Amino acid sequence: MTPAINPAERAQVKHVHAFLDKQMHERQVNKVLHGFPSVRLWQERNVPVKQFLTERRDRRERKAGGLSLYVASPFCPKTDPERCGYCLFPIEVFTGMGQLETYLPYLEREGEMYTGLFDADEIVSIYFGGGTANLYKAEHYPRLMAIVRKVFPNFRADAVITLEGLPQLFTKDKLLRMKASGVNRISMGAQQLNDDLNKLSGRPQTVKQVLQAIEWCHELDLECNVDLIFGWPRQTPERMSRELEQLLKTGIRHVTHYELNVGGKSDFALNHRHELPSEDENLELYRASTELLERYGFRQLTVYDWEKPLPSATTALYEECTRDFDGNEMFGWGFAGVSEFPGTGAAPGWNYMNHTVLRNYYAAIDRGEFPVECGFHFASEDRRLSGLFRSLQGMEADRNKYLAAYGVDLLEEYRPVWQALLEREWAMITDDRIRLIGNGVFYTPLIQTLLGSRRMEELKRSLISKTLPIHPLQSAPQ
Ligand SMILES: C[S@@+](CC[C@H](N)C(=O)[O-])C[C@H]1O[C@@H](n2cnc3c(N)ncnc32)[C@H](O)[C@@H]1O
Ligand code: SF4
Q1: CA-263 nearest atom, ligand 1
Q2: What separation in Å is there between the alpha carbon of 189 and the centre of ligand 2?
Q3: Which among 152, 196, 185, 207 is positioned nearest to 254, based on CA atoms?
Q4: Arithmetic mean of pLDDT, 421-450
Q5: Pocket lining: 258 vs ligand 1, CB cutoff 6 Å
């Protein structure tokens, strides 16, 4: 419960309700903001990578949650329509193995630039993603891991090492080599278990291939996550539930169930918008999947992640948010890799992204420069908002930890917002936490937008006044 609010705050609460009433039926551009601010405001072109990583090392600054690593692969098989019809991630179309043979040495050379900067770090999780990280041949995986080990020799004993890929590109041989190289978890981008919908997104992938790849993972004792998306054209709760149930019956223990993000110049945005379910219908899909996953014994980890717990399980998953504010750091390595170093209260840190055009990534490394395209230097409020957004991805925020991390009372800082969420039964407030509940969980992206709106306006105004161009990835998901 929040203490009684005064008349001025009541007016603000009314304003928040009006905002939510208007926006809740609209599609949000960013489905879940992993951090703050969105990438379109990352306008700094000269990110002092060496300087702040050196300062970080010298301060012996380590977050309790440790350092996670994201290792990117740029390439994806060609599809028609392009980019699977809906994808907003930066990728390059795969034309042959020669591309990977060119890319790997560049990845290695980028790694060499960090020599000495991460020596004292222990890696808590690695995610080989992309793009499509299972385009490599079987013999490439030990090489990939050796490149990583050269820069990061220390992995935590229980580090979760995930490799993401397309179902039809997993073979038993590849999976064996991945496992032998140290990968202990596969994340399979199925997106849907419906061959007609697959055709709509141009992906030459069948349900049979998804089920086969899951079976191999189980045979080889490799943990397996399946990425699914809901909110497809013509999708109904009944159809979605039937397909989801077919997947759950395979015995997988981790499912990621994203809401389809439609934007940019994707085929879906340009040609299929009119066929998409409304936001209200998406809410129905979300509720139906929640109910089904719970019935199958899954526990919700984040707004979009579900896991069937093992009695012994503790996982340091890349997808799982940091429950402690300011709790961990992410180093993104390779093409379009995203790094997040929140820094400290006295020295707020950076979010930055490597080049999203491959020739620019290569050219920067050839010049001996860090291949960084753009970044954002936090002010205190941005650090706080970023921590809050991450935490809300896990559906709750710990008030005591927020106070300890930032010296600010979370309830006081956004009191009209919490009050409005309470009145809608979208949040629950206790002495120690604020938790999103009911439909509030589905509306997390909208709630994040609301929480960050004042600061976003301020940042946009300051950017306009600097007359900087808007970043080309402005419509990309976070
Ligand atoms: C960067 S993609 C790479 C995975 C792999 N290439 C694939 O397509 O399966 C990572 C995940 O993001 C999700 N994703 C991609 N585009 C999306 C969109 N427009 N809306 C929602 N989720 C999306 C998918 O679930 C996908 O598995
Ligand atoms: S959805 Fe996956 S395979 Fe398709 S273009 Fe995006 S990253 Fe590549």
Answers
A1: 19
A2: 9
A3: 185
A4: 96
A5: yes
Which residue of 31, 34, 164 sits with most ligand 1 atoms within 8 Å of its CB, as the best mutation to test the pocket? Answer: 164
Are the CB atoms for 390 and 34 separated by under 8 Å? yes
Q: In ligand 1, which atom is closest to the CA atom of 86? A: 19
CATH of domain 66-307: 3.20.20.70
Answer for the pair 380, 343: CB distance below 8 angstroms, yes or no. Answer: no
Instruction: Measure the CA–CA gap between 240 and 231, rounded to whole angstroms.
Output: 9
- Region 115-122: what's the mean pLDDT? 91
Residue 201 CA: nearest ligand 2 atom is: 4
**5 CA distance to ligand 1 centroid (A)?**
43
- pTM (whole model) above 0.70: yes
Q: Is the CB of 86 under 6 A from ligand 1?
A: yes
Say whether pLDDT at 124 is over 80. yes
pLDDT tens-digit series, residues 336-388: 999 999 998 888 999 999 999 999 999 999 999 999 999 999 999 999 999 99
- Tokens (6 digits) for 467: 């007359």
CB 360, CB 373: distance < 8 Å: yes
The answer to whether the CB of 283 falls within 8 A of the CB of 442 is yes
Ligand 1 within 6 A of CB of 261:
yes
Is the pLDDT at 474 greater than 50? The verdict is: no
Taking CA atoms only, the protein residue closest to ligand 2 atom 7 is: 131
Do the beta carbons of residue 364 and residue 355 sit within 8 Å?
yes
- Residue 205 confidence class, pLDDT cut points 50, 70, 90: very high
Domain(s) labelled CATH 3.20.20.70 in the chain stretch across 66-307
CA of 205 to the centre of ligand 1 (A): 14
CA of 360 to the centre of ligand 2 (A): 21
pLDDT given for residue 180 in this prediction: 98
Backbone phi and psi for residue 80, each to the nearest 5 degrees, phi listed first: -135, 110
